[in-house]
Amino acid sequence: MSSAAGPSAPIIVTGGAGFIGSNFIRCWIANEPTAVINLDKLTYAGNLENLSDLPGERLEFVHGDICDSALVKGLLARRRPRAIIHFAAESHVDRSIHGPDAFITTNVVGTSCLLECTRDYWQRLPADEQAAFRFIHVSTDEVYGMLTPEEPAFTEQHPFRPNSPYAASKAASDHIARAWHHTYGLPVITTNCSNNYGPYQFPEKLIPLMIHNALAGKPLPVYGDGLQVRDWLHVEDHCDAIRSTLATGRLGETYNIGGNSEKPNIAVVQTICDLLDAERPRADGKSYRTQIAFVTDRPGHDRRYAIDSTKIQSELGWTPRETFESGLRKTVRWYLANQVWTERVISGAYRDWIEKNYAAR
Ligand code: NAD
Ligand code: DAU
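Above: the input record for the complex with nicotinamide-adenine-dinucleotide. Below: its predicted structure, written as tokens.
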């Protein structure tokens, strides 16, 4: 093994070239003194350009799959990290409906492979390094299933009732992470958060898709009646919550992370239109709202998610700083200032996906 996994040792981030992972690495480098190793397979959702302005001496990229146990074991032995923050996943619900296999492979098999490699590494560490080591498993509120409009928000005690192939794969990974703590003592903490938004989000997800389509003069495809409710969490607030969890979270616990911003989808889309009307008015003077088009609903579409973040707020002192209004304005401005970024990620493969998901709606 290389030098000790003490406080100055690096952390490993899996999926650090994706949306939340790249924001987390940015946040880590701005706030923490230690180095980061980004282990990423670079699927369609992984983009190293998201990190290209960060200092190279603080960031190492390893191109690899979390399912590749030889690669993961070699990396752990070579770099001797003090923590792993596990973001890598297939993350888009609509893609899981069209093709669930990749979700089972990465989210279930990949997570269990990563946990096994980590257990093998962690068990060989000296006692003080074992005690300091952490595995943060980043998961979703979708594992809890859906709420009616009247039901209270999800607490950590809510039963798991995943409804999409994506949600089921994440729920399975949460169970595996829990078992590795319970059975082997691996120092795992799981976080379950709501819908993230912010810079560098792949334009298949609601907010960047709507901004991109609006500016391109395309329809804004709202599924069903648009009254499904999501809780919106600014990605930088999420990254702060994960840093708090790593610093002082209790082992074996789960923490729900939410933005206190429940909104129906149609309201989100209308607000994006209004912000664009103010920031980048259409040449014909009409509102972007005229581009809204109601389309066939997502199969099995969960009606409402809501997160009760009381536990992380009271135990770890974390609270979201961004309101949805301030966060969405910043986000719209980021996409307006970074249209070149969006154009570059919209490859031929992206166009194939849009055709597959929206042509028959
Ligand atoms: P993303 O799709 O933007 O990025 C996923 C990253 O993982 C990409 O860089 C991809 O290349 C990498 N990856 C995929 N398969 C891999 C593999 N087998 N090995 C190594 N790397 C691989 O995802 P995101 O939106 O940033 O989500 C990150 C995590 O947060 C996921 O675990 C997701 O389930 C969870 N989450 C996301 C949200 C959200 O709103 N985006 C909300 C709750 C939880
Ligand atoms: O709740 C957390 C989850 O949030 C994460 O675990 C997932 O990784 C992340 O993708 C997200 O899942 P959603 O399905 O909620 O996000 P998405 O952006 O795909 O859709 C948000 C809502 O908007 C959802 O109700 C579906 C709707 N929608 C989405 C798209 C892409 C539309 O109405 N039209 C669309 O074109």
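Notes for the reader.
Residues 14-15, 17-21, 40-43, 45-46, 65-67, 87-89, 91, 106, 110, 138, 140, 170, 193, 195-196, 202 surround nicotinamide-adenine-dinucleotide (ligand 1) (CB under 6 Å).
The longest helix spans residues 101-123.
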